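Tutorial, part two.
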Amino acid sequence: MERYSIRDAQDHLQKLIEDAQHGKTVLIRDDHDRVVQLVPVEQTRKSRRAGSARGQIEMAADFDAPLTDFDEYAG
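Running the prediction step on this input gives:
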C-alpha cells in the first residue's frame, strides 16, 4: 500500500493510475489526513444492434402539425 500527498499525486498521477490498474493499493491524503483510494473501474459495453427497438416506438400521424398552444404568440 502506497500513500501519497496530494502534491506528490499531482506530480506522478499517470504512474499512480497505472499502479492502481495493475492491482496496487494507492492512497492519496490531503493536509487534513482525509484519504481517498484510486480504484480501477471496468467498463462493460453492450453491443449495439440495429433495429432492436422495432415495434416499441409509435409516431402519431400529426407529429409535425403546428401546435395550437402557441397561436396567441404567433400573431
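The first helix runs from residue 6 to 11. In part three we will examine how such features are distributed along the chain.
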